[in-house]
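Hey team,

Sharing the VWFA domain-containing protein run so nobody has to redo it. Sequence (410 residues) first:
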Amino acid sequence: MKPGQYNIPPQGPPQAGQYGAPPPQAGQYGAPQYGAPGQYQPPLGPPQAGQYGAPPQAGQYGAPPQAGQYGAPPQAGQYGAPPQAGQYGAPPQAGQYGAPPQAGQYGAPPGQYGAPGQYGAPPQAGQYGAPPGQYGAPGQYGAPPQAGQYGAPPQAGQYVPQPQYGAPQAGQYGAPNQYGAPKAGQYGAPPPQAIQYGAPKPPSMGGVSLVKFFDHVRNHYARDYTLVIDKSGSMSGSLWKQAETAVAKIAPFACQADPDGINIYFFSSPSSRHPKYENIRDANTVMGLFAREKPSGTTDLYGVLNQAINDHFAKGNKPETILVITDGIPNSESDVKKLIISTTKKLPRDEDLSISFIQIGTDRSAAKFLKKLDDDLKKQGARFDIVDTCTLEEMKHLTFEQLIDKSIYD
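Structure output:
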């Protein structure tokens, strides 16, 4: 190019060797000669096993321990391995001992209920513990009484019993006891006592039967108390003295139970009216009666019982306990049996009248007769068993006075 001429730039891309051209290709002048001896050749791909940088192989230093080698995690069943389900130390499964209680099981947190019928389930309507006012189905607990059941209001046309005699008066059967709330063994105290229908007979005292008269007196039942005393000729002498002493002991206790005072009948030979003394309240009066009455004649037990029973019904069937003291068989055994059987058929309740017989003396025929009164009358048609007895053999060789001591004082 001559001086002064315009420098025209070369046309096209720079050629090899010119400024700005790409680096020389392999084989061209200036290109690096790779692969020549002594020169570094870069590795092609990842390092192969055994080359520097390759991961260590199993068994080489640095390789992870294989199963069974030192440092390897314990396998199932080896020492140190976590216990499997069911092995000792494994957490208990549901239902096993030690597992947390499931909903509805005993020990589950309060408020978590099981299915209906399971433990912990809220009480269903009609079950015990259900909110009041929720009734079960008819016949279930809590259901309102159905028509005709106990507690249901009477239906139209049904009979509703009404009291026949009005409210009981003081001293009558069913009236409150005058000595305060009934004590154990008194009328009105649960469970049913000796004077109620179906109750067991009075208790015994060391083998000696406690007749109802003594049981009623010692427990202060609000009743009338009556003594019927045999003064026939066979009662003369020691037997009369025994009867006198025994009655003197009985009277104070009987008067405490009977605020109106006791009644006393004496009987011997048949009479239109045997001697009767009413409203006796102290033992001194009783002793005076024994001084007035003298033993003689026969044994009209039927006549005096008939008189006492008629007086009982004349008073309106007020509950009464009668004690008969006798030493021999009556003039007519059959009449006595028939009288007692017919009397039971007039009584609304067996507790309305009780007759206790005590044998005094050693007449075995009398003991046999009294046992028949005690044991056989229901078989012969009596509605209730209103008779009980204590005979010579049942006294276990006690005197009448000793029997009273055991019956009332013990």
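Residues 159-168, 171-200 have pLDDT under 50 and may be disordered.

Ping me if you want the raw files.
A.
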